[in-house]
Amino acid sequence: MKFILSLLLAMISFSTFSAPKSDLWPYWNKSDDASTLVVDHQDWQQLLDQYLVSKGEYTLFKYASVSAKDKQVLANYLERLAKTDPLSLNKAQQYAYWVNLYNAITVQLILDNYPVKSITKLGGLFSFGPWGDEVITINGKTLTLNDIEHRILRPIWNDPRTHYAVNCASLGCPNLQHKAFTADNTESLLEQAAKSFINSDKGVLVNGNGARLSSIYDWFGEDFGDKPELIKHLSQYRADLGTLDGKISYDYDWSLNDTK
After folding, report:
1. What positions does the domain DUF547 occupy (predicted)?
2. Exposed, middle or buried: residue 117 (CB in 10 Å: 0-12, 13-18, 19+)?
3. What is the pLDDT of residues 196-231, one digit of tens each?
C-alpha cells in the first residue's frame, strides 16, 4: 500500500508539472537608473570557486564537500541580499542581483536537504520541486523562486537568455556559471551560457535532419517563439542548426548536478 501511494504521488507530481507563464509583478518593475550602488557578490564567487567543477558538458557542485563555515558564508550572503533594496539599483545591477539570488537560494535548498537525488524531491507533499515555496523576504515581500524567475526576470528583461542564467541544480539545466553575474559581465556570461548549452548534447542533440532539444524550449516556447524563431535563435550560436527541418522531440534530466 505504501509503495502504491508513493507511486501515485510521483505520477501526480510529474503529470501536473507545467512551466509557469511570464507574469509581471509590477512592484519590482522599478529601478534607479542614476544609481551608482554596486552589490558585492564576492562571497558567492568564493563559493563557486571552491565547489563548482567542470566535467564534460556539465558544471557540477560539490555539495557533500561544503563546510559548515561556507554554509554560513552562503547564509550571510543571502541575508545581505535580502536586506538590499533592489529598487534602489540600476537595471544592470538588478539583473545580476536577481540571477545570483536565484542560484544561491537553489544551492542553499540542496544543501539544507542533502543528500537528495533530485531537486524535484523537495517541496510540499504534492509539489514538483520547491519552486513555489516561499524562500526569502525582500522589502517586506515574501518571494518564491517562481516569483524571481517568472514574475521578475522574464517579464522585466524579456530576454530568453535568462533561461541559460538561472540554474535548477539539475543535469538537464543550463550550467551554473563559474562566474557570479555582475553588471559588467552579464552580457558576456549570457552569450557564453547560451553558446555552451546549445552546443551541448543536453541542449541540442541532432538526429539526422531532426533533433532532440532540451525541454526548456518546449516549456518556455512563449520566450523563444514559434519553430522558425526558435531555429533562428539556436542557429545564432550553432550555425548547422539553421537548416534544421525534421522532427523535434524534447527531453530533460532532473538528476542532481552533484559531483557524486
Report:
1. 88-198
2. exposed
3. 999 999 999 999 889 999 999 999 999 999 999 999
